[in-house]
Design goal:
Elements (H helix, E strand, L loop, with lengths): L6 E3 L5 E3 L3 E2 L7 H13 L3 E3 L7 H10 L8 E6 L6 H15 L4 E6 L8 H17 L3 E7 L3 H10 L6 E5 L7 H9 L3 E5 L11 H9 L4 H11 L3 E2 L6 H6 L10 H8 L17
Helix pairs in contact: 1-2, 2-3, 3-4, 4-5, 7-8
């Protein structure tokens, strides 16, 4: 990857920009509009939001006001848990599309797997609706978020379309190796939400020492490390200087020894959210 315009190729042949601009916890209104506009001005072409973030309308406005052609952007949103199952999914998608002010999505994700006794059936019924949206040309690619290996195996049993993406929590100290390995072996691209551990990894002494070797910030080190692990980072900020800084990760390479050192870090900085036990 040589710039933020670099891409990963999904399993359906579609190319996705290698860094996405995350909007989780970005306040709705002017803050979301301005941050999306500035991100696009800075060079981001991949914007990630979700229905539960409550900012789809503002994200859509920022996209429109950016002045960039729609076909040059890659837009993702996600289905929230209360709208799983076939018919509810179709209705929720229509609402999200209207909120964003778009004619189609580039990527639509199931935000979390259902984890109750009938979770496998709920996930399957939801996925059938995703496949219909794809067939109807309303979504170019479909995928999941926070799915562990056993959720994916169950989903794949009845799926006609293999998920293009699995978006999971991934950062130093939280690598989810089993899930990542399964995704890579099945040609499912892994995206990293909370690539900076919502800021929890930024004051880690070991990461600070490694970052100094490259004259980079810990944030830049983490984003570059994610890319070198073959995973797509989704950094989030509302501060212009940091939005720009998070794209300045293409003029250095982390050494194999430092990659191994970061990969071997024990668990820290994680959210603690377990897809098998979350209750929302």
């Amino acid at each position: 990857m040589e710039s933020s315009f670099g891409t990963f190729e999904l399993n359906n042949g579609i190319h996705i920009p290698c860094i996405g601009f995350g909007t989780w916890q970005t306040p709705d209104g002017k803050t979301a509009v301005d941050s999306v506009k500035y991100a696009i001005e800075t060079g981001y072409r991949h914007i990630d939001t979700a229905a539960i973030y409550g900012n789809e309308k503002s994200v859509g406005r920022g996209i429109r006001e950016s002045g960039i052609n729609r076909e040059d952007l890659f837009i993702t949103t996600k289905l929230w848990n209360t709208h799983r199952a076939y018919e509810a999914t179709l209705k929720a998608f229509d609402t999200s599309l209207k909120n964003l002010g778009l004619d189609y999505l580039d990527l639509y994700l199931i935000h979390w797997p259902a984890n109750k006794a009938d979770g496998a059936k709920i996930n399957s019924d939801t996925w059938r609706a995703f496949e219909k949206l794809h067939r109807d040309g309303l979504v170019k690619s479909i995928g999941v978020s926070n799915f562990l290996e056993h959720h994916l195996r169950s989903l794949l049993d009845g799926a006609k379309i293999i998920p293009a993406v699995n978006q999971i929590e991934f950062h130093p100290g939280q690598m989810q190796n089993e899930t990542v390995s399964f995704c890579k072996s099945n040609n499912i691209l892994v995206e990293a939400w909370s690539p900076l551990g919502t800021g929890r990894v930024l004051d880690n002494p070991a990461l600070m020492e490694i970052a100094r070797k490259y004259s980079k910030s810990v944030a830049q080190l983490c984003i570059r490390w994610i890319l070198q692990n073959g995973i797509l980072p989704l950094p989030k900020s509302i501060t212009p200087s940091r939005i720009k800084e998070n794209t300045e990760v293409f003029n250095f390479d982390i050494s194999d020894d430092d990659i191994r050192a970061i990969n071997s870090m024990p668990y820290f900085g994680g959210s603690g959210l377990n897809p098998d036990t979350v209750t929302f």
